[in-house]
Amino acid sequence: MNVLLVDDEDQLVSTLAERLQLRGIEASWVTRAEDAILLVKAREFDVAVLDVKLPKIGGIELKRKLQAIRPGMKFLFMTGHGSREDYDAGSREAGEGNYLVKPVKIEELLDHLFALVGPETKA
């Protein structure tokens, strides 16, 4: 499984990528939406895990841009500042339940990732 992590919290996203890689998942990360767009144009990912609150281009708008580039890509939202409205908007975009509130346990994230792409992608 190839996962793209997009979060403006550098330490959090790099640590999360490392933890996924330790579990056999190919994880790339960026801290800016613009970099995510460039990366998705260059490479295919199974899933993008997007922070909802990103500077310049918010997570929901970023999801729409990435989906236009890679229509088959799956999405999962993560936020540390989730309101009910954010949850509803994220669930409409990525599907019910594909919206996690930080801090997220690695096992919970893995469960969601495998639910999105299927268990056959487990290492």
Mean pLDDT: 90
Strand order of the largest sheet: 2-1-3-4-5
Report Rg. 13 Å
Q: Beta-sheet strand percentage?
A: 15-25%
What about the largest sheet? 5 strands, parallel
Helical percentage: 40-55%
Characterize the overall form.
Answer: globular
Distinct helical segment count: 5
- The span between the termini is 8 Å
Which regions contain 5 or more consecutive residues with pLDDT less than 50?
none
How many runs of DSSP E, i.e. beta strands? 5
Structure report:
The chain is an alpha/beta fold. It is 46% helix and 20% strand. It has helices at residues 10-22, 33-42, 59-69, 84-94, 106-117, and strands at residues 2-6, 26-30, 47-51, 74-79, 99-101. The chain has a 5-stranded parallel beta sheet, sandwiched between helices. Helix 2 packs parallel to helix 3. It is globular and about 35 Å long. The protein starts with a strand and ends in a 6-residue tail after the last helix.
At a glance:
This protein has helices at 10-22, 33-42, 59-69, 84-94, 106-117, and strands at residues 2-6, 26-30, 47-51, 74-79, 99-101.
What distinguishing features does this structure have?
5 strands, 123 residues, alpha/beta, globular
